[in-house]
Specification:
The protein is an alpha+beta fold. The chain contains five helices and four strands. It has a four-stranded antiparallel sheet, with helices on both faces. The termini are close together. The model has no long low-confidence stretch (mean pLDDT 96).
Length: 179
């Protein structure tokens, strides 16, 4: 598969937007991890795909360095107003479903890749962390933020918008590729 093939697959799967990833834009920042440590989402130390369990920034950076190219995929929802929580949740769900389908297709094609999802893992209602191993390691994917990335900067430096106008919500994921 080529990057063009994978972008076409992303379109087929229903992503609102997809484009090449500028791997030079990947800066794994301790400041982002510090936001995770503030535990506003209540997952810090309680989820296998969140810090500190998803690996140190050094480990993540070394892992990512093995992949010379990648793509960004996005799902954008049109909200009725700025507080349209139903649209936010529905768009997030669609992004996660589409991304999981893309990951499964790439696995089936034998592509070597490193996925980074949007938001916290939601495969299990309650994560087994830290008491037992992850129940679904093939489905559990750390987020771009968990890896220390500022998603808006990655999008901007890759030539893909992060913001699509008033009353929109966009979720972004990426896949690093070895093609």
């Amino acid at each position: 598969m080529t990057t063009t093939d994978i972008l076409a697959l992303a379109e087929e799967l229903g992503f609102s937007h997809a484009g090449p990833l500028n791997t030079g834009a990947l800066r794994f920042l301790p400041e982002v991890r510090d936001m995770c440590a503030a535990d506003r989402c209540h997952n810090y130390g309680k989820c296998w795909t969140c810090p500190p369990h998803c690996g140190s920034l050094e480990e993540i950076s070394a892992r990512a360095a093995a992949f010379p190219t990648g793509i960004l995929v996005q799902s954008t929802g049109q909200m009725e107003d700025d507080f349209d929580v139903e649209c936010m949740l529905d768009t997030e769900r669609l992004q996660k479903e589409r991304f999981q389908a893309l990951v499964e297709r790439l696995r089936g094609e034998g592509v070597r890749f490193l996925p980074m999802a949007s938001g916290a893992c939601s495969v299990c209602k309650t994560c087994s962390c830290p008491d037992a191993p992850c129940r679904f390691p093939e489905k559990a994917i750390p987020s771009m933020e968990a890896y220390g990335l500022v998603v808006s900067q990655v999008c901007e430096q890759s030539g893909l918008p992060y913001y699509y106008g008033p009353k929109t919500i966009t979720y972004t994921s990426c896949i690093l590729l070895e093609l």
